[in-house]
Each structure stands twice: as structure tokens, then as C-alpha cells.
């Protein structure tokens, strides 16, 4: 088969890229090693920047997002048993975030791509990239029905942190920047009405806790745990006990409790490769960079990457100019490092490191006090959190 663009990975990055290309009249195929069910059900991100919401609406994906997404014009920073509200909209000239599960975006994208007659292959048994240093890179896919080779003009590596795209690039062609943060997040989804209409990011002496949500009846909660924590060390009673300890406020506010529907652990890592491409292979989303989740940036960065990549490919096919493709990596890295610094800063602001001294604790408290009492500091957090416009 000849196909202009081969897309590896049907997560939010790969699916949205295919959607944008389809709208530009560029044919693509998307392959994933997981099942459609798995890709849709995976519980992950929930916070969309204003920039992401605007983009999704502009490209015809605003239906359910507008009806079911929860627009939040503020968030809370909690410490010392008190919640402090940051008015994101007031601080940013009306911008806000929207809570809408990543799995809902994936569901909407799969539906849109099916309706457009696009080609998505789930359940691939094996995926490989070859001829990457030529003008005709190849995407080899083995499924239960046999093996196919797609000869492409371009390949988009949208296969996440553990995918094969980045691993197919000779290591001498990449520079890797990496830092592992010494925390794990225990995340739970609970059948309980969120006790707050806006997110509560909390620092307690026992560590970070976060109250988020997925709908008016589902609460999403996270707890900082030591690295290498085991899930079986956290029976439901212990999770609620710890959430009550960390999130209980002096005014009596506590999260609502209910049956735990799902729980999981997430390691915290910072990772960036430079450049975000090799020949005609372009990496986007988690395949190219990972940020710690505290700033809620991962999914939003993936969306910004594929928007830029789709625009560059469109320019190539429409005008023959490769200027935007040539600029893809540099522009992506500027946005990535900005998100990286914000995510690392939010992480250190709100997590308690193992072995913190009394000095560390007081300084961290002073950072938070300054933040909630300085409009300049709040504005800096807010403009990063709601997302910068696409360049
Ligand atoms: P992925 O979602 O990882 O998708 C990659 C796809 O590639 C997968 O479907 C996978 O099956 C497939 N694949 C893997 N290997 C291969 C292969 N060899 N061949 C073919 N396909 C392959 N981000 C935010 O912006 N806001 C948040 O609030 C937020 N919260 C998070 C909370 C948690 C607990 C976690 C884990 C992440 C969170 N993130 C958040 C990050 C966000 O989920 C990711 O950044 C996002 O999923 C990246 O999308 P992606 O399409 O690049 O990668
Ligand atoms: C959620 C995840 C995050 O990483 C974050 O910073 C805020 C909210 C969430 O899953 O709802």
C-alpha cells in the first residue's frame, strides 16, 4: 500500500492528527497495538486548557465537549487547612479550563474518524518502522489477518512513552533529557459527587492530594505516595483515611466518599528528546516528551504538537514548502520546555519530598503564602494553567 501519512498510536495525539489530516484532505492510516476498548477505557487526563477546547471546537469536536464538559473559571490551592481560590478567568482575561475525560475525547475522535471513513487498525500484534532514512519510510503491521507494509511519505510517531517510534531512531541522532521525580501518584475514581465544583490542589504535611472530577457524580482523587509504592498496600479504607487527613479543611470541608470504581499508580517523570523528528518520522505527544502530571499539561501538549504537525503537512501537500515541517521540532520544543518548567514547578510547590527538613517545610509554606497573596504570582500560575495560545 502507498499512503501519504502513517500514524503509529491511536491515543489522543494519533487520533486527532488523523482527524486534522482528514479535514485537510490528506489520507492516513492509524495503527495501535491495543484494542479499541482498552484505548477508550484507559482513565487518564481530565483537564483541558482553553487552547485545547477552542481547537477541538474549531475542528468539529465540540458537541459532547460543550454539553458534558465542565468549565472551571477557578481552582483552589489548599495548605494549612485553608483553601485559597485563584480566579483563573479574572487573572487571564476570561480564559478557563474544562474538565472532560481523555477517554471521552478518544471516544469522540474514534466516532468522528469512523464517520469520515478513515482507516484505524486496532489490536496490531506487531508494528515496526523501516527505511526511516529514506524518502519513503515504511510502516509494517501484523494483525490476526496477516502482515501489511504501508509505504508512506511521512510517519507520525504518536505511540506514547513506551512506543516503538522513538525507539526506532538511532540513539546518536537524539539528545535525551530526563528526570525522575521521587513520587508516585495513587489515582482513584469514586462514585461520589465532587465536594467542590473546582479542583483542589492541596499540600499537607503527609504530602500532596488533589480533588478533581469527571462529572457531577464522579470524583477523581490523587495522593502522593513514595516511589515504588504497591497498589495492594492501599485498600479502599486506607485511601479514604489518607484523603480525609490530607484534604480536611479547618472549616470542616472534606471530600465526599463513595465506592471506588478504579485505582492505579502513576510514576512521575520529566522527559524530553531533541529533536522531535528523524528524517520523515515526526514524534508527537508522550512519544516525544513526558511532564509530571501536577500541571495537567501532558494531553494539552500532545494536542498542540499534532495541530502544528497537521498544519505543516498541509503546507507541504498544498504548496510544496517544507518550511513548517522544518520548524516543527523547534516550535514544539519551545512549548514543551515551557510546559516542563511549569509542571516541575507545580510539582515541587505541592509535594513533600522524603527527608524534607524544617527549613524546607517553612520555605515551601512561604512559597504558597506568597502565591496566594500576590496577584502577579497568581497570574503567572493562571496563564500557564489555562494554556498559551498556539503559535
Ligand atoms: P498515549 O495516550 O499514551 O497514546 C499512545 C497510543 O499508542 C496508545 O493507544 C498505545 O496503545 C499506542 N501504542 C503504544 N505502543 C505502540 C506500538 N508499538 N505500536 C502502535 N501503537 C502503540 N495530561 C493532561 O493534559 N491533563 C491531565 O489532567 C493529565 N492527567 C494525567 C493523569 C494520569 C494518571 C496520567 C497517567 C496522565 C495524565 N496526563 C494528563 C497525561 C496524558 O494522559 C498524556 O500526556 C496523553 O495520554 C498523551 O497522549 P498520546 O496520544 O501522546 O499518548
Ligand atoms: C487531573 C489530573 C491532573 O494531572 C491534574 O493536574 C488535574 C486533574 C484529573 O485527572 O482530573
From TrEMBL:
Pfam families named in the record: FAD_binding_3
Single GO MF annotation: 4-hydroxybenzoate 3-monooxygenase activity
UniProt-listed Gene3D superfamilies: D-Amino Acid Oxidase, subunit A, domain 2, FAD/NAD(P)-binding domain
InterPro entries: FAD-bd, FAD/NAD-bd_sf, RIFMO-like
EC number of the protein: 1.14.13.2
Domain of life: Bacteria
This protein's UniProt keywords: FAD, Flavoprotein, Oxidoreductase
The FAD-binding domain, residue ranges: 3-343
PANTHER family: P-HYDROXYBENZOATE HYDROXYLASE, TRK SYSTEM POTASSIUM UPTAKE PROTEIN
Name used for this protein in its record: p-hydroxybenzoate hydroxylase
Taxonomic lineage from the root: Bacteria, Pseudomonadati, Acidobacteriota, Vicinamibacteria, Vicinamibacterales
Protein's gene: pobA
Amino acid at each position: 500500500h502507498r499512503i501519504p501519512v502513517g500514524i503509529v498510536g491511536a491515543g489522543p495525539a494519533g487520533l486527532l492528527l488523523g482527524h486534522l489530516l482528514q479535514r485537510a484532505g490528506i489520507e492516513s492510516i492509524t495503527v495501535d497495538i491495543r484494542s479499541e476498548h482498552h484505548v477508550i477505557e484507559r482513565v487518564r487526563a481530565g483537564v483541558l486548557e482553553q487552547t485545547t477546547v477552542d481547537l477541538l471546537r474549531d475542528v468539529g469536536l465540540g458537541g459532547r465537549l460543550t454539553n458534558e464538559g465542565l468549565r472551571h473559571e477557578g481552582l483552589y490551592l489548599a495548605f494549612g487547612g485553608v483553601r485559597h481560590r485563584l480566579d483563573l478567568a479574572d487573572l487571564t482575561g476570561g480564559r478557563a479550563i474544562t474538565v472532560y475525560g481523555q477517554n471521552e475525547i478518544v471516544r469522540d475522535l474514534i466516532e468522528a474518524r469512523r464517520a469520515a471513513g478513515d482507516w484505524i487498525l486496532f489490536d496490531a500484534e506487531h508494528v515496526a518502522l523501516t527505511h526511516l532514512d529514506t524518502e519513503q519510510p515504511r510502516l509494517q503491521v501484523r494483525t490476526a489477518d496477516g502482515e501489511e507494509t504501508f509505504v508512506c511519505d511521512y510517519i507520525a510517531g504518536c505511540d506514547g512513552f513506551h512506543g516503538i517510534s522513538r525507539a526506532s531512531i538511532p540513539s546518536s541522532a537524539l539528545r535525551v533529557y530526563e528526570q525522575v521525580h521521587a513520587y508516585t501518584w495513587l489515582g482513584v475514581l469514586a462514585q461520589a459527587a465532587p465536594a467542590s465544583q473546582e479542583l483542589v490542589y492541596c499540600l499537607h504535611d503527609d504530602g500532596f492530594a488533589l480533588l478533581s472530577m469527571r462529572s457531577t457524580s464522579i470524583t477523581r482523587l490523587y495522593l502522593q505516595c513514595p516511589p515504588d509504592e504497591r497498589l495492594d498496600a492501599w485498600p479502599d479504607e486506607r485511601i479514604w483515611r489518607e484523603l480525609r487527613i490530607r484534604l480536611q479543611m479547618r472549616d470542616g470541608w472534606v471530600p465526599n466518599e463513595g465506592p471506588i470504581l478504579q485505582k492505579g499508580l502513576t510514576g512521575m517523570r520529566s522527559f524530553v528528546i531533541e529533536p522531535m523528528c528523524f528524517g520523515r518520522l515526526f514524534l508527537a505527544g508522550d512519544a516525544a516528551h513526558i511532564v509530571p502530571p501536577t500541571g495537567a499539561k501532558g494531553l494539552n501538549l500532545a494536542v498542540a504538537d499534532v495541530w502544528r504537525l497537521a498544519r505543516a503537512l498541509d503546507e507541504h501537500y498544498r504548496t510544496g514548502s517544507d518550511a513548517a515541517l522544518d520548524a516543527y521540532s523547534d516550535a514544539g520544543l519551545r512549548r514543551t520546555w515551557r510546559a516542563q518548567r511549569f509542571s516541575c514547578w507545580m510539582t515541587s510547590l505541592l509535594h513533600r519530598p522524603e527527608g524534607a527538613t524544617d527549613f524546607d517545610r517553612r520555605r515551601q509554606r512561604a512559597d504558597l503564602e506568597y502565591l496566594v497573596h500576590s496577584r502577579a504570582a497568581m497570574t503567572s500560575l493562571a496563564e500557564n494553567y489555562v494554556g498559551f495560545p498556539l503559535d
